[in-house]
Amino acid sequence: MPNLKFSILIFTIFFSVAQNEAAPTVLKNNYDIIVIGGTPAGVAASIAAARANKTVLIIEQSPCLGGVLSSGVLRLDDKYVESNSGVMEEFRKRVKAYHRTEMADDPLVKQHINRNPQLPWNVAEGRAWEPHTAARIYAEMTTEHKSVSKRFNEVAVDVIMEGRQITGVITRERDNQGNLGSQYSYAAKVIIDATYETDLAEFAKIPYRIGREARSEEEPHAGHIYTNYFRRVPKTLPATILPASTGEADHRSQAFTYRITAKDYGRPDHAYRLAGPPPGYNPAMYSWNANSKPIIPNEKFDLLGINWGGDLVGYGTRWVLADWKARVEIEKIYRYHDLACIIHQKRFSAT
Q1: In the chain, N or C: fewer CB atoms in 10 Å?
Q2: Which architecture, in CATH terms, is 25-203?
Q3: pTM given for the model
Q4: Which ranges in the chain are annotated with CATH 3.50.50.60?
Q5: CA angle (292 as vertex; 287, 298 as ends), nearest 5
């Protein structure tokens, strides 16, 4: 195994606000539309509403827009570039323009300009990026619309109902330790939940279910199932359904993870290097592919793409069902688990 020395930039969602248990602060501004979550879907909804001459408020839990695309998921998982459309396609074209102008001298951009544009994750085509690039472009796209306002570092904790209609939302500030602070209230004609947890559905007592539906003729790969899609069982075709697969419905959801963006600084003494493993580190849970190369500009790559073990099963459904206070402890479990990816084989450093 080569003796590589790395430093890591971790793009996670952290916040900085005052810890304050003050009484609700009612903001009297009424909007046409409130979008909970500055995710790619939330940004797209906001821009579409602004183009329809509506006033919009985006309420986002992190300090920036973009959701997972600005906090670690640094590429489009589009098999065909033609599948992109709407605001997502506008985003891709802006990433492409940024790479070909301000990042034109980057070695990877130069290399990808000469590649087939149809190949996935082509940075010269805007299909992969640094997380801060996504945050910058989403900020630019929304700022161009004067009717779009933004509130950062806030999470939804309840809704305001009139009969069966949601007319407002109650939020609280949340800092980088998960502490909840000041409370606010907002009103609008339409409320859009563009978060990943869809908490507003529960607040409004809307029926929902979480988990995998059962296998059926229409969904042959649904339900409780094992395949060799990632691990590639010898002499077995990809996506083959393996023994012990029942196809039954269950409560399980996709595994969650922190997405870590890495860069080789070539220094074993870098200031970001971890002093030791996080609590509960078990090296048997991780494996590495040492031959991976940078896939985004500035010689960075996605750590999830070169290791096995970053995803953590067993807590996804718990996270979705938990309130924001309970999520503090679940968040620690994920953080420690993915920091252990870095310490594995003592080859990495981290912020």
Answers
A1: N
A2: 3-Layer(bba) Sandwich (3.50)
A3: 0.85
A4: 25-203
A5: 125
